[in-house]
Write a structure and sequence with these properties.
Blueprint lengths: L9 H13 L5 H17 L5 H11 L9 H8 L1
Helix pairs in contact: 1-2
Length: 78
Amino acid sequence: MVQAMVRIKERTNRVLNVLKAKYDLRDKSEAIDIMAEQYEENILEPELRPEYIKKLEKIRKGKYIKYNSIEELRKVTK
């Protein structure tokens, strides 16, 4: 666990106090943890990097051979 001394605005302090009360937390550090988790879920996770989307599109456009079984695949690769 990392300890940090931070300066926050009065409004931020009020928000942390509200979160602390809402989730019945012991201290503001737990409120900050919840804020970080919610930020990660809502802001960071849903978006994919543009270069990854391009790579996926390129893979989807590729030519594929359909095999009905592993044995059929093994016959072709021998």
